[in-house]
Specification:
The chain has 222 residues and is an alpha+beta fold. Helix content is 22%, strand content 20%.
Amino acid sequence: MSNYHVEPASKPQALTSEALKSMRTEAPKGLSRRQLLRTSLGAGVGLWLLEVSAGTLGFLWPNLSGGFGGKVPLGSFTDIKNANSLVPFGDGYPAYYQDARSFIVLVDPTRQEFVPGEDATGDGTALNVRALYQRCTHLGCKPNFCIKSYWFECPCHGSRYDRLGVKVKELGPAPRSLDRFAVIVQADGKLVLDTSKLTLGSLPVALGQPGLIPAKSATGCI
């Protein structure tokens, strides 16, 4: 018989002292748990800062560029009337401007002009012009103006407002009148809206009470 003994290849072998020393001194390959945690935390903070910066820029950009959220020039009474020739703006029908997200309406249609001045509250009575925010005060739908009744009507839940945006108490769930933007009429008669200044609408007015312009028709458009 042979004196050679064959050891199984799968039998565990003890590590040599040189291998143990190498494992203690050499840095492990790949990312350690601590490095992975630091990298993940840094990436998360960086993403959050990017979102905050983008949101801040998005909020400030309209003010810097003169769009919605800042001052929006619309022109003189004649400019607005000519630009909205398809609707009877001079008779009190609102003119809609997407850039300002507003309805522009004459307070007193018998006076075919804007009166120079400034109104931070947005009431506009002294200036003979009012700028109404395009959002229904219930859930934010855009109300439509009805040529039959000369009232604003919200197509979503039926809230109705008179020609100047005053909420009709009995009609619809909106809690207040339409909100208003500050208005400026320059010395040359040109209208400028300050859409950074919003005044919340007044409380609803009951049918037949002072402060509510009666509808031209008993039936509306919705």
